[in-house]
Amino acid sequence: MNNNQFEEAPVRFGANLGYLLEMADQYKENPTSVTEEMQALFSVLSSGGSVSGLNAEKIKAVIQLIDNIRQYGHLKGDIYPLYKPVRENLPKLTPEDFNLTQSDLEQLPASLVSEEMAGKYNNAFEAVNHLNQIYMDTIGYEMSHINNAEERDWLKNTIEAGARSTLSKDEKLALLKSLAHVEGFEKYIHKNFVGAKRFSIEGVDALVPMLEKVMALASENDIQNVQVGMAHRGRLNVLTHILEKPYAMMLSEFMHTDPLKFLPEDGSLEITKGWTGDVKYHLGGTKKTTRYGSEQIVELANNPSHLEIVAPVVLGKTRAEQDDTSGHEPEQNCNRAMAVLIHGDAAFPGQGINFESLNLSNLDGYSTGGSLHIITNNRVGFTTESYDSRSTLYATDVAKGYDMPIVHVNADDIEACIDVIIMAMKFRQTFNKDFVIDLIGYRRYGHNEMDEPSVTNPMLYKEVKAHPSIEIKYGKELVAEGVLTEDEMNQIFKDIEDEIRTAHHAIDKSEQVLDSEMHVPQSVAEGQPDIETGVDRTRLEQLNDNMLTYPEGFTPFSKLTKILERRHDPFKKEGLVDWGHAELLAFGTIIQDGKPVRLTGQDSERGTFAQRHAVLSDENSGDKYTPLKHIEGAKASFDIHNSPLSEAAVVGFEYGYNLQNKNAMTVWEAQYGDFSNMAQMIFDNFISSANAKWGETTGMTLLLPHAYEGQGPEHSSARLERYLQLAAENNWTVANLTSTSNYFHLLRKQAHYLNTDKMRPLVIMTPKSLLRNTFVSRPVTEFTEGHFRPIIVDDYKKTKVKKVLIASGKVAIDLYTELQKAPNDEIVLVRLEQLYPLPEEEIQAVLNDFKNSVEIGFVQEEPQNQGAWHYIYPELEKLAAGKTIKYYGRVKRSSPSEGDNEVHKLVQSAIIQNALTI
Predict the structure, then answer these.
(1) Which residues form the Transketolase-like pyrimidine-binding domain (predicted)?
(2) Cα gap 717→29, rounded to integer Å
(3) CB 916 within 8 A of CB 818
(4) Per CATH, which fold does 173-323+340-506 belong to?
(5) pLDDT digit string (tens) for 242-253?
(6) Mean pLDDT for the chain?
(7) Which of 84, 302, 564, 666 could form a disulfide linkage to 284, CB 3.0–4.6 angstroms apart?
(8) What CATH number has the domain spanning 576-614+631-785?
């Protein structure tokens, strides 16, 4: 450990500074206005003299001792059940460290420690002893980093009140039974399913009764929905004892029989299932329960192996539960739902998604009114001890930068664990802020139950193997207290084992279910049929007028006014509707149809390319105005937020939001499409595959700016190839459009299928230079009727055609532009608007018009090893019926594009000219 790990606290009076300064000011004005003790103290400090034989330096030392105890007492606390670390270079934490005697402290008033202690203790010595008991026990507190004085004072007063919960005999027995169920379940599986992976909770068993207390306190505070996110360790136990998944269901999963046979018939437990499935310790569920005094729902989110990645998903689910989207803008009630995020001690500081997620906690568009974080700290990550896995003293230190209270608690002191939950819930309800609990325990076995941990962590596991499990430890404590006899304790353990064994015997081992076919459900396989998405012209014009009407006295930025006024032209002067305009018209009609719209991204209010202007600023006052929140006939809300500079957490949040509110048109927009690289794990592990793995459905929409315009490798490609590589089983729609009316219809089609069994995500490669291109902009007539067109083909004379060019997005418009300049009847351009699912029938119908001598050319801007080529070539080969297929585009490259703009122009021009050459 570094020698500078700790440093002395300055003489800053801790949380009492404000109080002492106020008293000092009163003393200056009128010495008799403060207590006699304070008069003596301020007299000494101002004169450099002494009081009761103590000089000013000694009084300062007393104050610094008090401050150090509050700030650093946790370093000497009993917060480790075993394998206690050796602390070096500790701050001064005893009177002797400051050359203070008991007599010195007895001469000072208890009010010097805290005004609240003035009536409870006779002097500072007694008060300091009280602080030692509070701050150096099985609970360690960290709060000095919090900037908000009100929060600090609340924490100090709550902590120093020192009243630990006094549990009744029945409450103690209930705790013991809870722990016995937790341990009994783990021990039964360990004995009967030898070597099976389960990621045991043993060592941090207290988590389950802590969650039970969360549910009870949530019920008392009328919080009816609790969203839980966690990785693998302890997950099966949480499913069993918090979501009340029957033992038979859980055991049947170990036996590969059908667990749904044991699903409660009352419908209280919902378990979704995908057709390819997932391992049991990734699965979640939803439980309706009255166990804690009122009707509540607790949900455990499905989670892949990417540990902490579920955190923002749970936050998004929680926010969706809190938002009432029936009005013009969402109304948030933080007591409709709360989030509980359970972290690993190695993962919490190690995975960047946590930093991004913590940063969301106090942002308007993402706050959830205070999330509860519990770190199940087993002191080792896989095989790595803490000194190899983090640069901080505690796993929780990263939370200090976000002003979150941090409490460390010994996982073997179950009653202390419950007290910590009580405090955390009170803080959440008082301040609507996050709270972090470091539940410090151990891990009974290796990373999984087939692993031998002593190979890599021998000293730790010498202690673990000799350490009693918590239900034995707590049971013996209760026996010593006279709460129950040892025979009664053992009977509790036996009854639980018998209960699990009975469930096990109820399973028919011969009824194994092994579905190797894994057929896609019919509703998914059928895809999304075309629907009419046109909107009456009168309705569109009224909507447009609403969006261009502002409150009295509101003055938009003068240069923007002319741009916005041109949005009247398509209705007044037969002008064209550009991209941003088409999008806002689509969103307006969607909320009029009763589907809320939520759009976020790093610059989404204005639009990265100044194309949207959904939120306007008054140039004189800076006031904001969002026209879509004020349109006539809206039956649902419009919500838009500029997001933080985050991709992974924000995309995860939006995914979670749409999971919980499947009726919402939830849209995330990348600043540039390639920025989505930073959220790739969300696309891989959730959006593309969640339905197949877990039966988890979403209709989230992704807007990814994509096109080659000479802006270099990181501002050209949205990595279209990745979304196409992940495309299978109708899991999403991937589009690259060339028409604003087609964009309008596609958004409305996406909204139409929300909250249905045909809902699926939508990935759109949105334009940059095409945002204002007149060939892309379309007249109002194309918005008032029709539907989304997966391909766009102009009229052609089939007897003259020698080449069919297929292209998407900007390169298709590049080809179209050249053909407008120099028409050529020998070339037909097929603008492929929807890449996946590939519109085979529409393409086949075009190709069938031509003889085998016709060449089919696929044109793309991306290098040959990227883009759509490798995806589409085998599909075109099936449709070509012997016709020649040729590739036009960049050669294979490791980088998405060239960096020099002039070189780009040469390469791009060559692609277009080669493609148009017969």
Answers:
(1) 577-773
(2) 70
(3) yes
(4) Rossmann fold (3.40.50)
(5) 999 999 999 999
(6) 93
(7) 302
(8) 3.40.50.12470
